[in-house]
Design goal:
Organism: Neogemmobacter tilapiae
Shape: elongated
Order of helices and strands: HHHEHEEH
Keywords: Cell membrane, Membrane, Transmembrane, Transmembrane helix
GO cellular component, one term: plasma membrane
Transmembrane segments: 12-40, 60-83
Number of strands: 3
Subcellular location: Cell membrane
């Protein structure tokens, strides 16, 4: 089955996106969408690494909800900093976050989460992949920010990716 359908989620996504783009559920469009959904993953299979080892995919939904909520709260916090805090009181800092994550996909997701959250950005990853360099707009307690990233995001990603 893996030879015919190497990336079933990609195939389903391609079919859905195709049907949404053409905005017509005619038989011809469905057949063309199926052809695209089956051939594109087959043609690109040599360029794909192994699938990420997601041990508990059902935990992705609460993680996405948590990150969405944190983005909303961080937007409010950044607005308060910019609007009401004197510029000389803002304590921007670089923070090193040691990683317990092993897979590149999980590390990339953690980096994206940090960057998506206003007020923080992932600036670099160590050459051995064991630490992230984070820049924080306002970090009066860098250790608390590091611990928050590890407890709030990394621990959940460890459970998701196993």
């Amino acid at each position: 089955m893996k030879r015919i359908l190497p990336h079933p989620v990609l195939s389903a996504t391609l079919l859905i996106v195709w049907l949404l783009l053409v905005n017509d559920l005619g038989l011809g469009n469905i057949l063309l969408g199926l052809i695209l959904a089956l051939t594109i993953p087959l043609l690109t299979r040599p360029y794909w690494p192994d699938s990420p080892p997601i041990a508990r995919p059902f935990l992705l939904i609460p993680y996405i909800l948590l990150v969405t909520w944190d983005i909303i709260l961080a937007n409010i916090a950044v607005a308060k900093i910019i609007l009401f805090m004197a510029p000389d009181r803002i304590q921007s800092r670089f923070i090193t976050v040691p990683l317990d994550l092993k897979t590149p996909e999980a590390i990339a997701l953690l980096s994206a989460t940090i960057t998506l959250t206003p007020g923080t950005v992932t600036a670099d990853i160590s050459t051995d992949g064991r630490a992230l360099l984070i820049h924080s707009l306002h970090a009066p307690d860098p250790d608390a920010i590091r611990d928050d990233i590890k407890n709030r995001y990394e621990s959940r990603l460890i459970r998701i990716f196993g």
